[in-house]
Protein: Large ribosomal subunit protein uL29m
Organism: Cyclospora cayetanensis
Amino acid sequence: MSGVLHALRRCVAPVACNPTGPPMRGIEELWKGGYLDPSLPASVKNSLAVAGDAWPARLLRQKSFDDLHKLWFVLLKEKNLLLGERWAAWQAKTQMKHPERLKKVKLSMKRILTVLSRRAIHEQCLFAQRLLQQQQKREALELQRHELERHMLQLQQKIRLQQRQQEQQQRSRSSLACLAWQQQLETAKSKHEELLILLKPLRHEVQSLLAPDWRYERRFSDLPGPITWRKEFLPVLRNKKKIFKF
Protein backbone atom coordinates (compact mmCIF):
# COMPACT_ATOMS: atom_id res chain seq x y z
CA MET A 1 0.00 0.00 0.00
CA SER A 2 2.83 2.39 0.83
CA GLY A 3 4.43 1.69 -2.55
CA VAL A 4 1.22 2.64 -4.37
CA LEU A 5 0.91 5.90 -2.40
CA HIS A 6 4.55 6.71 -3.11
CA ALA A 7 3.98 6.17 -6.84
CA LEU A 8 0.88 8.39 -6.77
CA ARG A 9 2.81 11.14 -4.99
CA ARG A 10 5.52 10.95 -7.65
CA CYS A 11 2.90 11.29 -10.39
CA VAL A 12 1.06 14.17 -8.74
CA ALA A 13 4.08 16.07 -7.47
CA PRO A 14 5.17 17.61 -10.82
CA VAL A 15 1.65 18.96 -11.39
CA ALA A 16 0.89 20.23 -7.90
CA CYS A 17 4.37 21.58 -7.10
CA ASN A 18 5.79 23.11 -10.24
CA PRO A 19 9.32 24.37 -9.47
CA THR A 20 9.29 26.89 -12.34
CA GLY A 21 6.04 28.58 -11.32
CA PRO A 22 2.44 28.10 -10.21
CA PRO A 23 0.37 25.47 -12.02
CA MET A 24 -1.77 26.53 -14.96
CA ARG A 25 -5.46 26.26 -14.08
CA GLY A 26 -6.96 27.78 -17.23
CA ILE A 27 -8.27 30.92 -15.53
CA GLU A 28 -5.19 32.81 -16.72
CA GLU A 29 -6.78 33.02 -20.17
CA LEU A 30 -9.34 35.46 -18.76
CA TRP A 31 -6.72 38.16 -18.20
CA LYS A 32 -3.57 37.10 -20.10
CA GLY A 33 -2.86 39.46 -22.99
CA GLY A 34 -5.23 42.19 -21.80
CA TYR A 35 -4.84 45.48 -20.00
CA LEU A 36 -5.05 43.67 -16.66
CA ASP A 37 -1.95 41.56 -17.40
CA PRO A 38 0.89 42.97 -15.26
CA SER A 39 3.58 41.07 -17.16
CA LEU A 40 3.10 42.99 -20.43
CA PRO A 41 4.36 46.51 -21.16
CA ALA A 42 2.00 49.25 -22.25
CA SER A 43 3.15 49.18 -25.89
CA VAL A 44 2.37 45.48 -26.21
CA LYS A 45 -1.02 45.98 -24.57
CA ASN A 46 -1.91 48.73 -27.05
CA SER A 47 -0.85 46.58 -30.00
CA LEU A 48 -2.88 43.61 -28.75
CA ALA A 49 -5.94 45.79 -28.18
CA VAL A 50 -6.21 46.66 -31.89
CA ALA A 51 -8.88 44.35 -33.32
CA GLY A 52 -10.36 43.86 -36.76
CA ASP A 53 -13.97 43.55 -37.80
CA ALA A 54 -16.45 41.06 -36.43
CA TRP A 55 -16.81 37.64 -38.02
CA PRO A 56 -18.99 37.94 -41.14
CA ALA A 57 -21.88 35.52 -41.51
CA ARG A 58 -20.74 34.33 -44.96
CA LEU A 59 -17.53 32.92 -43.43
CA LEU A 60 -19.35 31.39 -40.48
CA ARG A 61 -21.71 29.52 -42.82
CA GLN A 62 -18.73 27.68 -44.33
CA LYS A 63 -17.58 26.30 -40.97
CA SER A 64 -18.67 23.04 -39.41
CA PHE A 65 -20.45 22.66 -36.10
CA ASP A 66 -17.22 21.73 -34.27
CA ASP A 67 -15.41 24.79 -35.62
CA LEU A 68 -18.29 27.05 -34.60
CA HIS A 69 -18.33 25.40 -31.17
CA LYS A 70 -14.61 26.12 -30.69
CA LEU A 71 -14.96 29.67 -32.00
CA TRP A 72 -17.89 30.28 -29.62
CA PHE A 73 -15.76 29.45 -26.58
CA VAL A 74 -12.87 31.55 -27.88
CA LEU A 75 -15.23 34.51 -28.19
CA LEU A 76 -16.73 33.73 -24.79
CA LYS A 77 -13.31 33.92 -23.13
CA GLU A 78 -12.58 37.15 -25.00
CA LYS A 79 -15.92 38.55 -23.88
CA ASN A 80 -15.17 37.73 -20.23
CA LEU A 81 -11.74 39.35 -20.58
CA LEU A 82 -13.27 42.53 -21.98
CA LEU A 83 -15.99 42.58 -19.33
CA GLY A 84 -13.27 42.41 -16.69
CA GLU A 85 -11.46 45.32 -18.31
CA ARG A 86 -14.68 47.32 -18.45
CA TRP A 87 -15.37 46.65 -14.79
CA ALA A 88 -11.83 47.65 -13.84
CA ALA A 89 -12.18 50.87 -15.86
CA TRP A 90 -15.51 51.61 -14.20
CA GLN A 91 -13.98 51.12 -10.76
CA ALA A 92 -11.07 53.41 -11.67
CA LYS A 93 -13.51 56.05 -13.03
CA THR A 94 -11.80 55.94 -16.43
CA GLN A 95 -12.85 55.05 -19.94
CA MET A 96 -12.21 51.58 -21.28
CA LYS A 97 -9.55 51.29 -23.97
CA HIS A 98 -11.03 50.43 -27.35
CA PRO A 99 -14.58 49.70 -26.13
CA GLU A 100 -15.68 48.71 -29.64
CA ARG A 101 -13.99 45.33 -29.14
CA LEU A 102 -16.78 44.15 -26.85
CA LYS A 103 -19.40 45.11 -29.43
CA LYS A 104 -17.55 43.18 -32.15
CA VAL A 105 -17.29 40.08 -29.95
CA LYS A 106 -21.00 40.20 -29.11
CA LEU A 107 -21.87 40.68 -32.78
CA SER A 108 -19.76 37.66 -33.75
CA MET A 109 -21.45 35.51 -31.09
CA LYS A 110 -24.85 36.68 -32.26
CA ARG A 111 -24.00 35.74 -35.85
CA ILE A 112 -22.85 32.28 -34.74
CA LEU A 113 -26.22 31.77 -33.04
CA THR A 114 -27.98 32.98 -36.19
CA VAL A 115 -26.05 30.54 -38.41
CA LEU A 116 -26.70 27.60 -36.07
CA SER A 117 -30.38 28.54 -35.75
CA ARG A 118 -30.86 28.68 -39.51
CA ARG A 119 -29.10 25.35 -39.90
CA ALA A 120 -31.39 23.79 -37.33
CA ILE A 121 -34.45 25.30 -39.01
CA HIS A 122 -33.26 23.94 -42.37
CA GLU A 123 -32.78 20.48 -40.84
CA GLN A 124 -36.25 20.74 -39.34
CA CYS A 125 -37.74 21.57 -42.75
CA LEU A 126 -35.94 18.63 -44.37
CA PHE A 127 -37.16 16.36 -41.59
CA ALA A 128 -40.74 17.58 -42.04
CA GLN A 129 -40.52 17.08 -45.82
CA ARG A 130 -39.17 13.55 -45.42
CA LEU A 131 -41.80 12.80 -42.80
CA LEU A 132 -44.55 14.03 -45.11
CA GLN A 133 -43.31 11.74 -47.88
CA GLN A 134 -43.25 8.79 -45.50
CA GLN A 135 -46.76 9.66 -44.31
CA GLN A 136 -48.08 9.78 -47.88
CA LYS A 137 -46.42 6.45 -48.64
CA ARG A 138 -47.92 4.95 -45.50
CA GLU A 139 -51.40 6.22 -46.38
CA ALA A 140 -51.19 4.59 -49.81
CA LEU A 141 -50.06 1.28 -48.30
CA GLU A 142 -52.70 1.46 -45.58
CA LEU A 143 -55.36 1.96 -48.25
CA GLN A 144 -54.10 -1.10 -50.11
CA ARG A 145 -54.11 -3.08 -46.88
CA HIS A 146 -57.68 -2.01 -46.11
CA GLU A 147 -58.89 -3.01 -49.59
CA LEU A 148 -57.01 -6.30 -49.38
CA GLU A 149 -58.48 -7.15 -45.98
CA ARG A 150 -61.96 -6.35 -47.25
CA HIS A 151 -61.36 -8.65 -50.25
CA MET A 152 -60.08 -11.39 -47.91
CA LEU A 153 -63.21 -11.14 -45.76
CA GLN A 154 -65.41 -11.44 -48.84
CA LEU A 155 -63.52 -14.53 -50.02
CA GLN A 156 -63.73 -16.12 -46.57
CA GLN A 157 -67.47 -15.48 -46.48
CA LYS A 158 -67.93 -17.01 -49.93
CA ILE A 159 -65.88 -20.08 -49.00
CA ARG A 160 -67.83 -20.47 -45.75
CA LEU A 161 -71.19 -20.32 -47.55
CA GLN A 162 -69.99 -22.75 -50.23
CA GLN A 163 -68.79 -25.23 -47.63
CA ARG A 164 -72.10 -24.95 -45.78
CA GLN A 165 -74.00 -25.71 -48.98
CA GLN A 166 -71.77 -28.72 -49.64
CA GLU A 167 -72.44 -30.03 -46.13
CA GLN A 168 -76.18 -29.65 -46.67
CA GLN A 169 -76.01 -31.40 -50.04
CA GLN A 170 -73.59 -33.99 -48.62
CA ARG A 171 -70.94 -33.57 -51.27
CA SER A 172 -67.47 -34.96 -50.66
CA ARG A 173 -65.63 -32.90 -53.27
CA SER A 174 -65.49 -29.08 -53.30
CA SER A 175 -66.52 -27.15 -56.38
CA LEU A 176 -64.15 -25.41 -58.77
CA ALA A 177 -65.36 -22.00 -57.60
CA CYS A 178 -64.47 -22.85 -54.01
CA LEU A 179 -60.98 -23.98 -55.05
CA ALA A 180 -60.46 -20.76 -57.01
CA TRP A 181 -61.58 -18.68 -54.03
CA GLN A 182 -59.19 -20.54 -51.73
CA GLN A 183 -56.32 -19.92 -54.15
CA GLN A 184 -57.22 -16.22 -54.32
CA LEU A 185 -57.36 -16.13 -50.52
CA GLU A 186 -53.86 -17.60 -50.21
CA THR A 187 -52.52 -15.05 -52.70
CA ALA A 188 -54.22 -12.22 -50.80
CA LYS A 189 -52.75 -13.43 -47.49
CA SER A 190 -49.22 -13.45 -48.93
CA LYS A 191 -49.70 -9.90 -50.27
CA HIS A 192 -51.11 -8.86 -46.89
CA GLU A 193 -47.98 -10.15 -45.11
CA GLU A 194 -45.74 -8.24 -47.53
CA LEU A 195 -47.71 -5.05 -46.89
CA LEU A 196 -47.36 -5.49 -43.13
CA ILE A 197 -43.59 -5.89 -43.52
CA LEU A 198 -43.45 -2.64 -45.51
CA LEU A 199 -45.73 -0.80 -43.08
CA LYS A 200 -43.88 -1.70 -39.88
CA PRO A 201 -40.92 0.75 -40.29
CA LEU A 202 -43.21 3.43 -41.72
CA ARG A 203 -45.55 3.23 -38.74
CA HIS A 204 -42.64 3.46 -36.32
CA GLU A 205 -41.19 6.50 -38.10
CA VAL A 206 -44.45 8.38 -38.52
CA GLN A 207 -45.32 7.89 -34.83
CA SER A 208 -43.13 10.93 -34.13
CA LEU A 209 -46.03 13.05 -35.39
CA LEU A 210 -47.94 12.07 -32.26
CA ALA A 211 -44.91 12.54 -29.96
CA PRO A 212 -42.65 15.18 -31.60
CA ASP A 213 -38.99 15.42 -30.76
CA TRP A 214 -38.02 18.22 -28.38
CA ARG A 215 -35.30 19.39 -30.80
CA TYR A 216 -37.95 20.42 -33.30
CA GLU A 217 -40.10 22.26 -30.76
CA ARG A 218 -37.51 24.80 -29.62
CA ARG A 219 -38.06 28.38 -30.69
CA PHE A 220 -34.91 29.67 -32.30
CA SER A 221 -33.95 33.28 -31.68
CA ASP A 222 -30.97 35.54 -32.25
CA LEU A 223 -31.07 36.71 -28.63
CA PRO A 224 -31.57 33.66 -26.41
CA GLY A 225 -31.65 33.61 -22.65
CA PRO A 226 -33.75 35.33 -19.99
CA ILE A 227 -33.93 39.09 -19.72
CA THR A 228 -32.74 40.37 -16.35
CA TRP A 229 -33.69 43.83 -15.20
CA ARG A 230 -31.44 44.04 -12.16
CA LYS A 231 -29.60 47.23 -11.44
CA GLU A 232 -26.14 45.72 -11.82
CA PHE A 233 -26.93 44.75 -15.42
CA LEU A 234 -28.12 48.24 -16.41
CA PRO A 235 -25.37 50.90 -16.52
CA VAL A 236 -27.93 53.71 -16.31
CA LEU A 237 -29.32 52.44 -13.03
CA ARG A 238 -25.95 51.26 -11.77
CA ASN A 239 -24.25 54.66 -12.11
CA LYS A 240 -27.20 56.56 -10.75
CA LYS A 241 -26.81 57.56 -7.12
CA LYS A 242 -29.68 57.77 -4.72
CA ILE A 243 -30.62 61.24 -3.53
CA PHE A 244 -31.75 61.32 0.07
CA LYS A 245 -34.23 63.98 1.02
CA PHE A 246 -34.44 65.01 4.64
